[in-house]
């Protein structure tokens, strides 16, 4: 866990008072909506179809149990008893009243939670690997650097009025769980030959209307130079970014139009001027941040405790363990992913009761810590293996032990037309129907790893471009129509999916996905060949044939 | 449903209303003939040509404290005079999400 210092606490509290005053002036008519909009967006407040939406940051996906309880409290007191975890390590409340928002923010501030920079054209919540600090083989805890960047960029005037929103993600593992290649800046922690810590820097990734996979702009930037390097990128962006056209304003378009070579030359020039400035980070600063992250006092535990051996006889436990439990860097411990994808339910939603109960389980079994991942699931990062059977039973009672992590029913979906004012089509009911179609666990397991991503419009909040199967809702003559792509991926081998053919109607989407999956099962060479590999080997054609032959 | 937030020209194809979200709590409201807002679609002022629509919208926009983001939305008026939303988006705004919420209200 990270302990905020006095500066952070003051900042968060001052922000609440400031916003309280702004809301008051808005409600009295002193501020017009035009004047207020930018202020509310800087505090995570959007307007959706039915109500305001309130987006709260969970920096680098780390939550303490008391913070999760505070989120449950907000859900219960100010909203309709649930919250929605998003793909950017945020939580959204869908039914909040503007007049009550300052109170909700004040309650969250008590536990160090805020909504700064969760919307608007600024530097957004810096995201990271939800297994940070516990993943085996990680270079070092990427949250130290996420926090450094968070501190530097929070309310930084130069980054508060960018041409468009700006998103950074950091990973420190070879397997990328933070989707760094689809962020404006992606950072991968590495060591150079001298054993010094630094970053491979990627730039220009992003989805939306014009999707791009990020490109490496520099193979190694020393840790002490990372702030000046990011600042150099942002300065070039601030200078050339297309403020005149919202569709061309993201850095990905600039990188694409200038070309990565020219863009990197510009950045290099800028960087040389500011590199040896006060932006150079002293080791003490990094060490100070490092010292504020506390790690549990792990016990020395056996690799295979009796409790686990005995529980292995229960096939239901085993089904859950195989998909939800991952190795931890400390022997005797595991990382447990909590599926927020029960069959038939909206992906990523958790009720206040579930959040409270999970906070209790985190206290009991995970040193009071919870993580939030971009797949819209949660995790308990430090569970002793001997506790896994008891934890599983408790999670099952809460409806939080669906054994489908990374399987076809572990769907990422945006709110779509049920909530979002920008939507063209619904996403959540498509996800619900798909989970019902593949509810049979044996079938889902037989299919193996397969990610479905659904967005309700081209903004791509559901990351449809990088879904193994991607579903995009569009509108045609007043009707919801869905375009389907296959072959995308969001990990270290990130790729954009390819369209399989004309769009299909709302009622047909689940049938089409079933056809694609049946085609895959028939085409794969062996059971271990994952959907992605079959698509890579054979391309789109055989799937297209299967889907459209009878349509 | 192409978002009406992208609505540039005012061109209406049939009976329409002006809808927005109430400022203090965000709920869906409709502009009434009495120059006020109502959460009940049946109380909405119905406009039938673009001049009427323009006038109703202008008057709604001016009431910035009452509601935010006003725009013109299509409705269907039945033979019995009953008013229904004219597309799926407006249907969802009126009756709520189509998916069942995790916690019933
Ligand atoms: C319902 C309220 C929401 C609104 C109004 C909204 C709006 C937008 C817009 C306009 C963009 C495109 C920005 C651009 O390309 O310049 C965007 C991108 C994005 N949104 Fe949302 N969003 C909403 C909810 C969500 C949710 C619930 C999630 C997570 C599940 C999410 C995750 C993202 C992500 C990851 C992107 C980046 C895609 C990219 O790289 O271009 N958003 N959002
Ligand atoms: S992808 Fe479109 S419909 Fe979905 S949440 Fe984002 S803006 Fe809304």
From TrEMBL, chain B:
One Pfam family here: DUF2849
InterPro entries: DUF2849 (IPR021270)
Protein name, entry field: DUF2849 domain-containing protein
Organism, scientific name: Bradyrhizobium canariense
Lineage of source species: Bacteria, Pseudomonadati, Pseudomonadota, Alphaproteobacteria, Hyphomicrobiales
């Amino acid at each position: 866990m990270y302990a905020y210092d006095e500066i952070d606490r003051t900042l968060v509290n001052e922000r609440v008072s400031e916003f309280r005053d702004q809301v008051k002036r808005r409600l009295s008519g002193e501020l017009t909506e035009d004047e207020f909009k930018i202020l509310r967006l800087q505090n995570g407040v959007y307007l959706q179809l039915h109500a305001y939406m309130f987006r709260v940051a969970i920096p680098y996906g780390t939550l303490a149990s008391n913070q999760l309880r505070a989120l449950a409290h907000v859900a219960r007191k100010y909203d309709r008893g649930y919250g929605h975890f998003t793909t950017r390590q945020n939580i959204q409340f869908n039914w909040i009243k503007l007049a009550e928002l300052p109170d909700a923010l004040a309650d969250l501030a008590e536990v160090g939670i805020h909504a700064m920079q969760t919307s608007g054209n600024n530097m957004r919540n810096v995201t990271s690997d939800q297994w940070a600090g516990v993943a085996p083989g990680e270079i070092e805890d990427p949250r130290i650097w996420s926090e450094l960047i968070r501190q530097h960029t929070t309310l930084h005037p130069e980054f508060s009025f960018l041409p468009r929103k700006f998103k950074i993600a950091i990973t420190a593992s070879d397997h990328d769980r933070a989707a760094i290649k689809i962020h404006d800046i992606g950072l991968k922690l590495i060591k150079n030959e001298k054993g010094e810590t630094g970053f491979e820097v990627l730039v220009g990734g992003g989805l939306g209307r014009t999707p791009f996979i990020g490109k490496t702009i520099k193979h190694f930037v020393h840790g002490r130079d990372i702030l000046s390097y990011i600042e150099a990128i942002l300065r070039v962006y601030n200078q050339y970014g297309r403020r005149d056209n919202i569709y061309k304003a993201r850095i990905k378009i600039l990188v694409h139009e200038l070309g990565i070579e020219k863009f990197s030359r510009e950045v290099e020039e800028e960087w040389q001027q500011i590199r040896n400035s006060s932006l150079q980070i002293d080791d003490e600063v990094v060490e100070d941040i490092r010292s504020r992250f506390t790690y549990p006092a792990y016990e020395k535990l056996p690799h295979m405790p009796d409790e686990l051996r005995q529980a292995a006889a229960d096939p239901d436990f085993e089904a859950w363990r195989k998909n939800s439990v991952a190795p931890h860097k400390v022997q005797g411990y595991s990382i447990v992913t909590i599926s927020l994808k029960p069959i038939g339910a909206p992906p990523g939603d958790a009720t206040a009761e579930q959040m409270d109960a999970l906070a209790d389980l985190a206290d009991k079994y995970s040193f009071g810590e919870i993580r939030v991942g971009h797949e819209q699931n949660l995790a308990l990062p430090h569970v002793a293996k001997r506790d896994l059977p008891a934890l599983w039973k408790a999670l099952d009672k809460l409806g939080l032990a669906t054994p489908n992590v990374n399987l076809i029913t572990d769907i990422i979906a945006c709110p779509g037309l049920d909530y979002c004012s920008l939507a063209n089509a619904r996403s959540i009911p498509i996800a619900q129907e798909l989970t019902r179609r593949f509810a049979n666990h044996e079938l889902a397991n037989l299919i193996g790893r397969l990610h479905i991503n659904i967005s309700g419009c081209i903004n791509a909040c559901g990351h449809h471009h990088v879904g193994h199967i991607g579903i995009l809702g569009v509108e045609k003559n007043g009707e919801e129509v869905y375009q389907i792509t296959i072959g995308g991926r969001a990990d270290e081998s990130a790729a954009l999916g390819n369209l399989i053919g004309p769009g299909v109607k709302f009622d047909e989407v689940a049938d089409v996905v079933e056809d694609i999956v049946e085609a895959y099962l028939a085409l794969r060479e062996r059971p271990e060949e994952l959907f992605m590999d079959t698509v890579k080997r054979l391309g789109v054609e055989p799937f297209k044939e299967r889907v459209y032959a009878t349509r | 449903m192409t978002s009406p937030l992208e609505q540039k020209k005012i061109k209406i194809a049939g009976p329409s209303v002006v809808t927005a979200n109430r400022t203090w709590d965000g709920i869906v409201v409709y502009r009434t003939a009495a120059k006020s807002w109502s959460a009940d679609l049946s109380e909405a002022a119905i406009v039938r040509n673009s001049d009427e629509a323009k006038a109703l919208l202008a008057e709604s926009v001016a009431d910035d404290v009452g509601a935010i983001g006003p725009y013109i939305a299509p409705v269907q008026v039945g033979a019995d005079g009953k008013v229904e939303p004219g597309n799926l988006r407006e249907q969802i705004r009126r009756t709520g999400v189509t998916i069942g919420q995790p916690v019933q209200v």
